Amino acid sequence: MFFHKSPSWHRKHKIDVHFLCEGQRYNHIEGHQQMVYKDGAARACRDYGKYYSDRKDCFNPWEFMPETFDLSDREDCLKITKYLLSDPNPDNVKWIKKKSRNSHNAKGVTVLTRENSKALLEEYEYGSKCGAIEDKYIVQRYIQNPLLLEGKKFDFRVYLLVANTDPLILLYHDGFLRFSYSEYNGTSTEMTSHITNTAIVKDLMKHQPSTKPSAMEDQMWTFERFEDFIVKKMNLTENWLESYVRPAMKKNMLHLIRMHIHNFLLHPRTFELFGVDFIFDENLHLWFLEVNRSPAMQATTFEKGRIQSKLIKDLLELEFALMYNADFDKVLSQTNWEKVYDGRLSGFERYQGLLEEHCV
Predict the structure, then answer these.
(1) How far is CA 29 from CA 231, 263, 296, in A?
(2) Which of 45, 131, 337, 339 could bridge 74 with an S-S bond, Cβ 3.0-4.6 Å?
(3) Left (φ > 0), alpha (ψ -120 to 50) or beta: where does 150 sit?
(4) Which of 30, 177, 153 is closest to 93 using CA atoms?
C-alpha cells in the first residue's frame, strides 16, 4: 500500500505503469485538487447549483456554503468591490478574505474590518485593477450569527473517506469541535475572536503563562461532550446528533463529492482521507467551510488522539478488506465509519437515504 502525506507520487510515476498495479492501493486520488482549493470549491458549488436551478429545495449553492467571490476573476472581483463600496463603514465584520490555495493554519486569512476593507479596495484601486492582480484570494461572506458555546465561536472538523472511486464508496467519521481563543465579538478586530484553528490557538496558549493545563481540552470537544451540553442548553432531543447533525453532514459530503467527481480519476485501487470543516449558525443551519487533504493527525489532546488513532487503524482495515476482497461491510460494522454512498448497490439504495429521489 502506498501511503503518502504529500499527493505527489502520481505526478512523478505513471499509474498502472510504474505503480498501482494489481494488489496495490494508493491513498491519493488524481484530480482532487479543485475540491481542496477554496476558489475551486466555490466555482464548483456555483456550477453544481445550476443543475438544481429548478429544485432549490434540493440544493442552493449559497446556502450550502457562504457566498464566495474569487478576486482573481474580474467579474467576481468587481462584484465584491461593489459590495464593499456600498457599505464602507460596517458595524460588524461581514466579509472574510482567505488565500485560495496551499495555505494552512489560518495563514492568509483576514477579517474585513473597516480598515482591512479599505486596504483591499485601495489595492484593487476600487475595481480598476480587477483581473490584473493574479494573487489567489477569495472573499467570502462571513457567518455573522454563529452558534456560540459558552460565548465562543466554534466549528466542526469531521472526516470523509473516499474509500474507493470505482465503484465509488464514501464514508463519514465523527471528529471534534474547535473553539476560538477569545469570546466571540462580531465587531472585534482581534483574530482570536474569529478563528478556531487549532494550531493558532495552541501557539497562543504557549505564550500565555496563565493558561491552565486543561486549556487544550477546553478548546477541542468531542461530539459526545457537545451533545451533552447542547441538548440541555437548547432543550433538544437526546438523539439530536444522530437524527440531525450527522445526516446533515453526510448529505453535504455527498453533494461535495457529486460536484467534484468529474475531476477524479476513477480507479479501483485509489482512496483518500479528507478533513471537512462545518459551522452552525444560531438557527442551526449547517454551513460547509472547506476541505483539507491529508488532515493533521497530531494528538494535541488525549481524546483527539483516541479518535484519530482508531480512525486510521479502521481506515487501513477497510482498505485492506477492499484490497483482498474480504467482507467490506462486515469490517465496516466493526468500525466507527458510516456510509454516505455505496456505488456497489443498485438504484436509489446507494444514496443511503440522504437524498430524495427528485434530488438525484
Answers:
(1) 39, 10, 18
(2) 131
(3) left
(4) 153
Q: What residue type is assigned to position 88 of the chain?
A: P
Grouping H, G, I as helix, E, B as strand and the rest as coil, residue 257 is helix
Q: At what angle do helices 38-51 and 246-260 cross, to 10 degrees?
A: 90
Give the pLDDT score at 301.
Answer: 85
Q: In this structure, which amino acid lies at residue 98?
A: K
In whole angstroms, what is the distance from residue 154 CA to residue 180 CA? 6
Secondary structure (3-state) at 294: coil
Nearest to 278 by CA among 126, 125, 159: 159
- Please state, rounded to an integer, the average pLDDT across all residues of the chain: 92
Pick the range with the lowest mean pLDDT from 106-110, 153-157, 229-233, 334-338: 106-110
Q: Quick check: pTM over 0.85?
A: yes
Work out the angle between the directed axes of helices 114-123 and 74-86 (0-180°, nearest 10): 140
Alpha-carbon distance of 174 to 220, in angstroms, equals 13
Give tens-digit pLDDT for 41-52. Answer: 999 999 999 999
Measured distance CA(224)–CA(85) in Å, rounded: 44
Report the candidate in 301, 207, 284 with the shortest Cα–Cα distance to residue 244.
Answer: 284
The residue type at 289: L
Which is more confidently placed, 210 or 96? 96
Burial class (CB in 10 A: 0-12, 13-18, 19+), 89: exposed
- Number of other CB atoms surrounding residue 271 within 10 Å: 24
- Which residues partner with 177 through β-bridges? 156, 221
Q: How far is CA 178 from CA 74, 200, 222, in A?
A: 35, 11, 9
Cβ atoms of 177 and 220 within 8 Å: the answer is yes
Confidence class for position 177, pLDDT limits 50, 70, 90: very high
3-state secondary structure of 40: helix
What are the grid coordinates assigned to 63, written together?
446556502
Dist CA 50 CA 206 (whole Å):
47
Contact 112, 93 (CB under 8 A): yes
Q: Is residue 2's pLDDT more than 90?
A: no
Task: Assign 213 a pLDDT band (cuts: 50, 70, 90).
Answer: low
